[in-house]
Amino acid sequence: MNYGGGNLRSVENALHALGVYPEVIVDAAGLEGITHLILPGQGEFGDVMAQLGKRGLVEPLREWISAGKPYFGICVGFQILFEGSDEAPDVPGLGVVKGRCVRFKEVTGKKVPQMGWNAAVPQVPGSKFWKGLGDEPYFYFVHSYFPVPQDSSWGVSLTDYAGEEFAATVEKGEVLACQFHPEKSQDAGLVLMRNFLSGGE
Questions:
Q1: Is 178 a catalytic residue?
Q2: pLDDT digits (tens, 9 = 90+) for 170-194
Q3: pTM
Q4: Is 106 a catalytic residue?
Q5: Domains plus CATH for the chain?
Q6: How would you list the strands of the sheet with 121-122, edge to edge?
Q7: Across the chain, what does the average pLDDT equal?
Q8: CA–CA distance, 39 with 56 (Å, rounded to integer)
């Protein structure tokens, strides 16, 4: 999905490496006939929600995700699933997952944003999304904010950054979203994306 922002080209390139040639959609009409939806994210929470609103995509996205249709949210595409973010305090998110995005705590020796490779430890035994990735795969992160889920029906993976643990992913049914960038995470990222597209088959 192209909402006027995001890291579209890198995601397209990663999909091409998997032999998948995506259709880029820009409005709700484009959702017709789509089987899997990937929303790459890059930028500020409030700007992303504004762009989705301009394109009439907010409610269709809520309906798609709430229906359990295959959705893969990346970075801000992950964060907008939540009720809101401290990055744009007055802007509501999609509210699909209870919780809010917060900023990393500023402590001595800790760089914000987090930029670089870090492990994500899956907490959902037998998850189809994590098939073939092992117990502690590494992915590439670039972010200052992260969501704090408050709904235990969503499974998570956990990452620790300088002593601060956070949910690097959420998953439920056919919905997966991650704070890191799988399209920039080499083999591990490609495996995760392949698992999303194939249902772990």
A1: no
A2: 999 999 999 999 999 999 999 999 9
A3: 0.94
A4: no
A5: 8-198 (3.40.50.880)
A6: 37-39, 71-74, 175-178, 164-172, 155-161, 121-122
A7: 93
A8: 15
